[in-house]
Fold each of these.
Amino acid sequence: MRMQAGDARLSIDCGGASTVAVLAWVDGSASALSFDGLPYLPSALYVGPDGDVRTGQRAWQAAVEQPGRFIPSPRRAVNGDVTVDRTVVEGLALAAAPLRTVAAEAERVAGGPVRDVRLVVPAGWGPRRRTWMRQAAHRAGLAQPRLIEAPVAVAEYLLATGLQLSVGAFIVVCDVGAGAEVTVLRRGPAGFEVLSTLADPAAGGTAVDSALTAALAGGRNASDDGMGDWVTAQSVRAAKESLGAHPAVTVPLRGRAPVVANSAMLVEAALPVVRRVAELVDESIAAAELSARDLAGIFCVGGSAQLPHLDTVIAERTGVTPTVVPEPQLVAARGAADAGAAHAGTAVVVEVPVPPVRRAVAIAVPGFASLALIWQVLLTAEQHNLLNVYRSVSLNWGEFTMAAVFALLACLAAGTVLGSLIAARSPTPSTRTEGGRVSIGILAAVSLGGAIAGLYAVVTSQYFGEPVGPFLKWALWPIAPIVVMAVAMAVVAARQWRAPHGGWSALLAAPTGSIVTAALGMGLIQYSLTADRWPDRLLWIDVAGRVGGLLLGVGLVMALVAPLMFRLILSAPVAVISAAIVSQQAAGILGVSYAVAVAMWWAARLWTRIIRPAPAGPTLTAPAAHAGTPGGGT
């Protein structure tokens, strides 16, 4: 089937050193446009005496006779007029020149004008620069373009090429071209959102070229604006690219004998730039209020992404080994060409998988512990009937409270599962986001857990024929602090501030060891209080009660602290005290104490895992001077 120009999508990435353009078709095929035999258009321009702006090979040829009208890096002065050999040239005309060349080549390949145009822009560009870019596209004769942020385009390309990235995950895109731009992204339900972006125009290939030129020319630096010996600069740039495959190359210098450049010289010239890029990565992660352990990956793209030791220095700085994406110079343009194409005109729905089966243990243990304790409460309560007039019931209020606590913990452990089931059947797509799913699950779990605790109170009061008030008091009041912590967690999840390390299902799982130990301890205490006290069994019954007190004390400590050393230190005094006070009256105190310990456990997890997570390594405060600065592109 013959493709029509109307079926094509044109994406253009205008970098500081070169412009890359990709033409994509509805059948999924795509190819980079070629300019003078190269898969990119050099950014250098030549301004003729009549104001005509030439690009590519024509610019280099014309510059041989009139070097003063040659502009090697026109993007450095895009916001105003430029003076070339005493001639004032509008900056917008310079920006439109490479776009006009790309538009002509795309029209030739597609067989007609391309109406679907996407322009790649730095994430740090504001409305003024974005409007300026649209004006340049209009001046070049392009259709009204859709602006796509470079890191978002890269992330879309990674997804399209097989990267497994769940909703709510964080990645870092390190775009190293003529300069550097580092961006932290979060995958949302319908695309990627930028959390932080930092840029440094001096941390890229241009700085490496300048340092390598100075080394080869005996200390003579290329001028900062690129208007110096551009012939030598071009030779050095070609040598830099060749040193990636060869240990040494010969570099011709204007007005001097050729010199030899080797890999060691390139490493020395690139090292300051590489270190600065690693700093930007670290600072951008800190600016997003994340740590390296929160990341799903760091991905390096751009024309200078293959600088020597870039991945090693970033790994040393952050603890995460970055991935240099194949064909890094084309990635942003390829991603922009496909961005939104598969879902044009339709709502994007991203399903989040239900937590793995092993999470069922975290649900089953507190659930069975709750049922076991409430069953023992019902079977072992002592009913007193004095002359059929005065009736009373003696039961273990501490055990009754712990049954309600375990019921709530079981429901909270099932929170992510509940959220998945609710979101899967919800007609509102927003409930399918990771934060929305978890928030709904927590609120549903709190409601279900509170309802079960209330049901325990009603059923038990009816079973014994007693007023329901005391039962509700012992079932609901002790779990109130846990409910408050859970609701706070739901608010955090709904606002999607941060996904906890290990995922939400792991965060919501209660400490199984503490539950088993405490439940067994309270069961033994109740046995010692209600067992038939035959003379030959008195010793064993008392020992069972003391052992139960010890276990309950250990379970309480396990809920309060996590480090093993602290558990060993605190368990001894707490276990001895709880064993010493075992009695009918003290059982209620022990049960409420355990409920308070669980609430403190939840508060600690909310603080250390979500609000103030411990950093994986040293982080730096992002300097405001670099925030939002446009990157170098490719």
Note: The CA atoms of residues 155 and 335 lie 7 Å apart.
Amino acid sequence: MKIELFIERIAKNVVTAVSEMYPDVEVVIVDPSGKLIGTTEKYNQAKNNRAYTPYIEELLRSDTPMIIDNPRDNPLCQGCPNISTCYQTLEISIPIHIENNWNGYLSMIVFSETSKKFYLERTNQVITFLQTILDLMINAGNSETASIKYQHITNMMNIMFQHLDCIAFSCNRNGDIQICNDAFYEFFGLDSAHEPPNIYHFLTGDSALLSVLDNSVTFNHEELPVVVNDKMNRMIVSSKVIDDNQNDMTEFLFFLRTLDGVRQYIASDTPQENALDCILGKSLTTAELKSKIRQFAASTSTVLIRGETGTGKELIARSLHGLSPRNKQPFITINCAAIPDTLLESELFGYEKGTFTGASKGGKAGLFEIANGGTIFLDEIGDMPLHLQAKLLRVLQEHKVIRLGGYHPTNLDIRIIAATNQDLEKLVDENKFRSDLYYRLNILPIKVLPLRERMADFDDLVFHFIVKYNDKLNKHIIGIDKAFLQILKNYSWPGNVRELENTIEYAVNIAEASYLGVESCPAGIINENSAHPQLTLKEQLKFEESRIIQEYLDQYGSQNNSIAEIAKLLGISRASLYGKIKEYKL
């Protein structure tokens, strides 16, 4: 509620109270439009519910208290429609300014010569009295407004808490619960029909959560033990302290997830659309690949995906998960080559608190635990260190995992999909990969052909990426020149589909025409296609010219003085060289 609305609401009560204390005095509150919002009914009728506008304007313009001791004769009263019936003898007024957007005034009016004389001799006290009334009303209005705002904020926070997908609650330093969601009641076994109890009633004295209240400790996604009803729960805890330097006003926010809740959260964040539809191509090879994926998806056996880099091995793994009965559970992926050996073990298997320096206070769940019930995808499995291969083999055989520094195993219901671009058989012969792990992983093998061996899908892929980057880059490419397409088909594609996508993204970015032409082709691909019988002589000459200019630019640079030197060596003008650099997008 705005403060001016509050004043309007209580004005009549204030006036009535003053009038009862001083029967020969009328206190009047006038709003910015001249309406009498606080007065007795008798005075309101005498004034026809309105004050005289010129008087209001002069009072607010001067912005100082005003004393009218000669009503009817005062120039400000001339023209007032009530002048002939006015019976007041004195009016003392003070202006009201609230937040620079509400301007009115507060007056004390008397009606006898005796009272006029009495109050004229005490003008300063009257002005102080009026200012006190005004201050009391404003302060009361501010308090009510603040209370309403606080209640509004509390209601908003309640709504937000209810929509959080975790256990959420706030409390003060004494542990009194202020706000909580339904998940809070459910987890702690409390009746939501009753007021939530004090936090100390359901947490033990050594709980890590209580350290937040006692010492203002904060946590950010820490794994901590929380004991409820004599049952220890491992939870991911975040806490925030809102402190205004007054201990009694400090608020503590808590957000908790059980490990099962974390798994469900990750599963809900995993795209559930059928990744199989993202495997593009209509060739027999692609059709057979999709058929194998559908067949293997229903199984719980381990899958080993083999293929060069950039062939879409993770997309195949996501397809297997998306088509499996586990598709509502987490899909966790980890690149074994991208994480240092010293961290990979703790990432996969987790650790108990105090296992090593720098470890999280309450320990940490490993990815196997988090993925429990779902699928874990171990990419670049050929780069996994030998000592971890032994632990992985044990997980595969026993379906259990033990954290570093721990003794108690956690049962696992998990499917493992592994992928590699390496020759695992060769690594086995070189004693760089365990043979028993290789056989355990290679139960359901999937071989992904490189792009150069499935060119029947090439056109579909090219046009798919053109459409994709048209949308992403707000471009309007409608096709590709035959010559450019042939150049792409002649290339060896060591990076496979990923490299093709990057090439099309580059071409769409720099294309100025509505078709992708050879001028949009990256220099590296042009260099490999410098001479091909499928191209016309003119096209071959342009490729060779582009390659030569690029070599000079690489050697001498592209500064103005370098351009002059290159033009001299090539026997052409600088203008011609600049034109060719622009033409070939070098």
Note: Residues 123-163 form the longest helix (41 residues).
Amino acid sequence: MSEKTKDVVETSEAEIAVHWQEEAYYHASPGFIGQANLTDESIFERFALKNFPDYYTEFAEMLTWYKYWDEVLDTSDAPCFKWFRGGQINASYNCIDRHLKANKNKTAIHFVSELEEEAIQHITYQELYVRVNEFAALLRDTAKLKRGDRVTIHMPMSAELPITMLACSRLGVIHSVVFGGFSASACADRIVDSQSRVLITMDAYYRGGKLLNHKAVDEEACQIAAEGGQKVDTLLVWQRYPGKNSSDTPAVEGRDIIVNDELKKYYGVRVEPERMLSEDPLFLMYTSGTTGKPKGCQHGTGGYLAYVTAMSKYIQDIHPEDVYWCMADIGWITGHSFIVYGPLALCASTVIYEGVPTYPDAGRCWRIAQALDVNIFHTAPTAIRALRKVGPDEPAKYTYNFKHMTTVGEPIEPEVWKWYQKEVGKEKAVIVDTWWQTETGGFLCSTVPGLQPMKPGSAGPGVPGIHPVIFDEDGNELPAGSGKAGNICIQNPWPGMFQTIWGDRPRFVKNYFERYCKNPDSKDWRDWPYLTGDAAVQAPDGYFRILGRIDDVINVSGHRLGTKEIESAALTVNEVAEAAVVPVAHEVKGKEPDLYVALKPGFKASDEIVKKIDDAITYQIGKIAKCRRIWIVPDMPKTRSGKIMRRVLGAISNHGDVGNVMTLANPEVVEEIKKMVG
């Protein structure tokens, strides 16, 4: 596309200006296709909208049910949909018990300590069965938990975390897992909202080579929760080293119980799994809103489990003999769906790594992959960019063989995708660029790896059964190939989607359905398109490209620009490792973008680099996307899970309050950037 035609693309206020150049296709190897779980093209016809909702019985058939369902989809309380209503099932049974007859000696979990001198633990399905049963007995008899109770789990990456989750689901106890890196107040918010009287933690864990006192955080969480009106009467503490206290925070008499000691009472106990209704809640997963209290996404049992099992099989291409490593934290939805419930329901071997991917050096991930012969690798663009920044040449030093790699969590820029494919995947692995959300339970868009070619930077079409649509502000559909972006929605419900926001149905309806709802009294699913809150454009081939949150769209002189597109353009410059765009108020244009970039090691900030970035944006997008300022910073402010805190950068650019930054991985960098911006 010439510079001239680029500037002429007319967009109304309601649409988002898009200037992506479509990338070339990459095809899976015949070897991959030959072994793939899904190579039957008729799935797209079977899962056409005209066959909805009955096509989802195919997913449910992958599970073991005590009783089959009375109705595939119950819409009587739309948009709080109930899947496989009346069916009876247990998630713990499906992830463990049903595999024992043929596979009890198979490894279920490989636990890798951050310390390389500590041996990897290999937990078989039989051992997992024993440990889950004994802990379920402890939860039932010591902690007095019963079906329908909520329990908050604030634990680091450890084998004990899935054991805890599966023990809860065995009893029908609703678990709410809080990311281990979250602060005491974030944990307390979730305890109060879910009304948990039991909190489960671990005394310590390794992060960057240091043994952190985690019990201290939960001591404080209990105090804050009590002030908020929810008393924790039982604090269950797993020991990082059984038989040894790794935290010097004193125990509270009558409240604290050391799990490893208490478990001795339950040696050999077996707990019959609760027969849960398919529509009973399995867990709560809180999404932290930037403002207001976090939303507790309530996920059901049968629908969720059927969906993540099918996605693990068809999109992740997990076979029972594969060694599968998802690098996410179990404290996020990715970890729930694609470290615990999906892979274990398929009888896979799942890897859990305690620490930082770059500790003690940038070769760590590839050493783990080599040692365990991992062949499916699943991580976020954040981690990929970090590994590309600190160790671009590391993957070549190790012998591992990935057949499949996933990217998840945010759009991946084509330049980063190509590095991932070439260096990490050694040009052999297929890549699925998956787009989905906490609320959706599993994937919405992705290529089916055995059937559809990959395209860098593009999430691909809707996965089988998901039928996305792009609406402008006024509810008009923007067709494929229009070159216009808008709000991507899903026309139909699906089994993995959350059931409601815990204790707040009005907020659920308002946030996700009200915008494009055709009739608020309707019981017809067609009247309730799901608003994802993301902006997207659909290419002529039907593939979707996600442009980030609708809230992250910058309105420059009536042109709505996706921040992801500007960041992508900046990342085409060789020296740039990371890029983040934030909107800055402008009295004439409304908003204009500020761009923050961090350079790869070995490069120093200079006017030449700033000009290269500026030119790349003009070339890729046009003058409309010119940034107010390009700031080269020593590092981006990041959460402990590696996400760039754009909110903090936005506050700095707009001379606002950055808020509490002490929970960041690198709070000191905020002061440096503030001084720079002035």
Note: Confidence is low (pLDDT under 50) at residues 1-13.
Amino acid sequence: MAAQFDLVVRDGTVFDGTGGAPRAADIGVRDGRIDAIGRFAGAGREEIDARGMAVTPGFVDIHTHYDGQVTWDDRFTPSSGHGVTTVVMGNCGVGFAPCRPQDRDTLIKVMEGVEDIPELVMRQGVPWNWQSFPEYLDALAARRCDIDFATQVPHAPLRVFVMGRRGVDREPATATDMAAMASMVEEGLEAGALGFTTSRSLFHRTPDGALTPTITAAEEELAAIARGMGRIGKGVIQLLDDFQDTTADGATEFAMLRRLVTLSRRPLSFTLLDISLYPGRWETLLREVERANRDGLPIRGQVAARPVAILYGLELSFHPFSTCPSYRAIADLPLPQKLARLRDPALRARLLAEEPVYSNPQMLAFMRNVGSMFVLGDPPDYTPAADRRLDARAAALGVSPLELAYDLLVANDGRTILFHPGANYSDCSDANMARMLRHEHTVMALGDGGAHYGLICDASYTTHALTYWTRDRRGERWPLAWTVQQLTDVPARTVGLGDRGRLAVGYKADINVIDVDRLRVAAPHPVHNLPGGGRRLEQKAEGYRATIVGGNVTYRDGAFTGALPGRLVRGARSGPSALG
């Protein structure tokens, strides 16, 4: 008898993405859509035995920076190895389009400083076969990848395209400038961008320490863009903001976000973190989010599912001694030679005594706060106990935290990774993070895949969310159905992708088959597979029996099948009937 379906996922426990109770069911797929759910006799040309497995929608990561990687690579690693089937790029106001040839160096410098993408990688990898944003989308539409991808119009390249050097130098935009930027955002949204993004964070700097073009943009400039979005009734707004204002708790800056949403009549989301430098600010912001939604303003906080941390190591971008003058002479040596030099007592003494020098004062202060660091370990421990912090360990050993950090970096053949949580782990507790994640007006996000190649590896947060919060956490654990919803339906609807994120008839057949008991994440490790031999952090997972994109099996037991069904997603989708 002829097969009724292209694919059948048989006998699994289906978590449909709505947060409802799971049920035993089969899923039949035809022409890239879910065609049937329940018990049926029809066979598939291919069948997956999901007995004892959780069957979920594919995960949707709405905060990534794959804008460059998508142009040279057909795989969205590490995200696609962690059940992610759709990513949204172009966040935080940075990207590669629009761009004139004479401005390429500027955008490369911004991306190198803000997103830790090596200059050589971008020069060799990015093809620059576009100038306008619609041309960039056309270039992406020709790509064939392992998962789907969508993007947004970033503010920094837009400002440089319109204003040239004045934009780079953060001069105020003229009325003509603002009208041009608004028009180009409208053009990008009409061509298929999901939204507009910007950054107002002092941490975002070029390698020479200069602030990125958008940091001090006036509200009038953002308002002009918001009005343009309101005119066409399309797009979401995303931003990163330090919320540095006169009230010290972010309330004044948040009032500006309210005005932008009022003008645009479009949803807005922003990075919401419990930052140890600003204790209690997250609570103020969350109250403001609640008040905004009561007033009919759709504002959400994007919250990371685990502590937001920088990773340091001798093979990574930075470590506590990497900006010391005496280290520069050995910085580019192969690891064995570097280790031999670092084991010299004279060099050790010199590096421990030297003052570091770096162009980004915020980053410099952070990376020298070694007492707040931990050893990440293998398997990685993202919520380590307070007595594992370097200051506590150093005190027990009778040495300084800096001395201990040095010795740990040199140990383990130089492959130790130091884990430095800067947010969502105040007082070595996950309690504040849990409160943010459980809030009705937040969304789980911030994978940051495609960026921070030697600093951060958070694209595995989807696996961590399923293992830590639902299975391994000490104390309260969350229902698996709820956590699945936060990884699928909630983020999809936050950015307007209503054709995915649920297992229901008519929806896009993006599916994970997961052995939850076996699910685990490995420690990150550096690999050199970027253009020009550039380095990035890879992180594998176990327990994903299969990942399916548009009805095509892309990964089996963690191994890539070679299937490349992923395509550019142009524009928002109101529901499954809008599936392209």
Note: The chain is about 30% helix and 20% strand.
